[in-house]
Each structure stands twice: as structure tokens, then as C-alpha cells.
Design brief:
Elements (H helix, E strand, L loop, with lengths): L2 H29 L4 H6 L6 H11 L5 H13 L13 H36 L4 H15 L2 H15 L21 H38 L2 H8 L4 H38 L5 H11 L2 H29 L6
């Protein structure tokens, strides 16, 4: 099967997959305890007639199956609904928070990938050596430490005791409200980004160290590598030109899978650091029982994971001509 036909087939298969994901999420969200109307009216007394009018306005007085078909019809017309909490279209709420999450996730996955590859390569060059043991210990610690606990430690020591980095928000109070990018604003965002990106990327650092180390140890023991060593080629050339290139499709696959799971870590990270992104948005929406926003984020994440895996498959096909679809 040709590469183009494969991607067309994958794209078509993604449509029913997204529908199944939406259905499961819709049922789980609506079966969860809590009432969005109770959050909307707050603690003040309101008449039962007003509550019923709100239910009818938001369509919550209808049977669950009818709510589902109405929602699916809206989604198919690219309408994600209206937020109970923010009183505006869900797509506007998501777009407003999306840039902050993208900045955080891209920074975290970039530094974790580069550091994980570098450390994993060094560990694979001398299995059982000092660097290998150090890398294994670092990887074990990084995947074991809870995200929220690491975030709190960084806040207490680097933000509170040493006062090196800011601990809350995306910008300083003096820059709140500024929408035009300037050098001062960019540097301020980067400074606020340090602790959240370290917190979010640390768990993935261990994954990449283990993956790269394991794959390269396997590749470096193969006959073609031993032949290259016998020819007198430099170790660095052998590793990067042969071994790492052969292992790169598996590494890319891991990166693609982590794009989806990273949002779960982003929810905790953004909550701890008051980072105004989608992770914090889904937490706030869950507290408020804002069903349309929760489902809208799930749809966005599902599509993002599918697209990311398609892109990874394309890159793998380019990196490894042996791959056929």
C-alpha cells in the first residue's frame, strides 16, 4: 500500500474513532456526581421555577440520550456548545487558553527530549559503567516523583526560599493585560516558564533516557555496528549515523504518544503554578460541572493525538525507508 493511501485510510479511520471517544466521554461526564445548575445559581436562594427555567435553557431537562444527539449534531456542524461558567462559546474559551498550554508543553517536551537523548546515548556507550548507573538512577527518580509534589518542592525552594524564579502565573503583575509582544514580555514569560516546564518535563526525561539507552544498547551490539567499529570509524559517527538513526522511529513513536498523556500532567502543573492554560481550564471546568468545556477539551485532545501520531508516522517513513505501509 502506498504511503498516501495509508494516511488517507488512517484519516478516515480517525472519524469513527473520534465519535466513539466523544460518546464515551459524554456518558462519563454526565454520569459524574454534581449539578452544573447548582454552580450557576451559587449559594443564593432562587425559586424552583427559575432553576427549571435554567435547566430548560441549557437543555439539561431533556433525557440523556436526547442531549447526546443534540450535542453530536452540534459537533458535526463544528459547534462545541456554550460554556455554563464563562457564558461564551466553548471554542472561544479553548482558543484563549490554548497558547499558554502549547508554550508550556512544547518547552517541556523539547528540553526533556534533548536531555533524555543526550543522557541515554552516553549511558548506552558504556553499559554497566558509572554514567549508565547514574542515568538509570536519574531516570528512575524522574518517573517516580509525583508531578504535583515536584512542583511544590520547586516553589518552596527555588521560588520561596531562594526567590530565584516566579512561582505563579504566566507574566508579572506589571505585564498583565499587555497583548502586544515585546522583548520584555517574552523574557517575562520565559522566566515564569522555567519552574512549570521543569515540573512537567521531568517525568518524560526518565522515559526518554530509558528508551534511548535500551534501543541503542541493542543496536550497538548488532553486526553492522561491529563491522563499522572494525573499520575504525569514530564512535560518535557510528552512534549518530547508524545506531541512533535505526532507533529513531521508535523514539519518535514514544514522543508522539506522550503528546496526549502530557495534558494530564499539564492539568496538575498548571493548577500548582496557576498557569492559565487548558490544563487549569479543565480542572476549573470539572469543579464547575461545565460539561461543554470539558467535552470540548476532550475532543481537541483526541484530534491532537491522532494528528500527532499521523505526523510521527510520516516522519518515521522519511527517516527509515524500510518502513512500508
Amino acid at each position: 500500500m502506498g504511503l498516501s493511501k495509508y494516511f488517507v485510510r488512517r484519516a478516515l479511520f480517525a472519524i469513527p474513532l473520534i465519535i466513539v471517544i466523544i460518546t464515551i466521554n459524554f456518558i462519563l461526564v454526565h454520569l459524574a456526581p454534581g449539578d452544573p445548575i447548582a454552580y450557576i445559581v451559587g449559594t443564593e436562594y432562587v425559586s424552583p421555577e427559575y432553576i427549571e427555567r435554567l435547566r430548560a435553557e441549557y437543555g439539561l431537562d431533556r433525557p440523556l440520550w436526547e442531549q447526546y444527539w443534540i450535542y453530536m449534531a452540534k459537533v458535526l456542524s463544528f459547534d462545541l456548545g456554550y460554556s455554563y461558567r464563562y457564558r461564551e462559546p466553548v471554542i472561544n474559551v479553548i482558543i484563549e487558553r490554548l497558547p499558554a498550554t502549547l508554550i508550556l508543553m512544547l518547552t517541556a517536551i523539547t528540553w526533556a527530549t534533548l536531555a533524555g537523548i543526550a543522557i541515554g546515548v552516553r549511558a548506552a556507550l558504556n553499559p554497566g559503567g558509572g554514567m549508565d548507573r547514574l542515568a538509570t538512577t536519574l531516570a528512575t527518580i524522574s518517573v517516580s516523583i509525583p508531578t504535583f509534589w515536584l512542583g511544590l518542592l520547586l516553589i518552596i525552594f527555588l521560588g520561596g526560599s531562594l526567590k530565584i524564579f516566579p512561582t505563579q502565573g504566566m507574566v508579572s503583575p506589571s505585564n498583565i493585560g499587555y497583548k502586544e509582544l515585546s522583548q520584555e514580555l517574552i523574557l517575562d514569560i520565559m522566566w515564569h516558564l522555567v519552574l512549570p516546564s521543569i515540573t512537567l518535563g521531568t517525568a518524560y526525561l526518565g522515559i526518554y533516557i530509558r528508551t534511548v539507552r535500551s534501543l541503542l544498547v541493542d543496536e550497538l551490539g548488532k553486526d553492522y555496528v561491529l563491522l563499522a567499529i572494525a573499520k575504525g570509524l569514530r564512535n560518535s559517527y557510528i552512534v549518530w549515523r547508524y545506531a541512533f538513526r535505526a532507533a529513531s522511529p521508535s523514539i519518535m513513536a514514544i514522543i508522539g504518544l506522550n503528546i496526549g498523556t502530557m495534558l494530564a500532567g499539564a492539568t496538575l502543573t498548571e493548577t500548582v503554578f496557576a498557569w492559565p492554560g487548558m490544563g487549569r481550564l479543565i480542572y476549573e471546568s470539572a469543579i464547575a460541572r461545565d460539561y461543554p468545556v470539558i467535552l470540548g477539551i476532550f475532543i481537541f485532545v483526541s484530534i491532537s493525538v491522532i494528528v500527532a501520531n499521523l505526523v510521527v508516522d510520516m516522519i518515521n517513513a522519511i527517516l527509515d525507508p524500510r518502513i512500508r505501509y
